[in-house]
Amino acid sequence: SIAGGSLGLCPLVARTGSLDLALCAGVFAGTLTAEGRGFPTNRAETRPYLALEAAPTARWNLSRHVDLSATVEALVPLVRDQLVVAGVGEAFQPSAIGLRATIGVGLHFE
Q: Do the strands 2-9 and 66-77 form a parallel or antiparallel pair, or are they unpaired?
């Protein structure tokens, strides 16, 4: 599993009526955790994970206080550590590129 957080910038590219389009770029930092089971010695391994992100984002302003957003992010890991099982070989290596999609609701208070 991967756990972490992102920091990025999302400059506005276009605005048409209630729709805003942005192109985001950032960095994702966290940890990659794997657990081996069914081997003579079972253990868990946690490693740092760092990736660059690029993401087009759309936000629909439904009202003055509520919006909906949708994002599709591409993540490119800066290091692709292999997790290896002794005597067996490679068990896992992160992909060269990953995808993540999110949808959200935003509330604005004034």
A: unpaired
pTM for the whole structure: 0.74
| pLDDT > 80? residue 41 | no
Measure the CA dihedral 92/93/99/102, to 10°: 50
Contact between 67 and 108 under an 8 Å Cβ cutoff? The reply is yes
Residue 73 in this model has a pLDDT that exceeds 90: yes
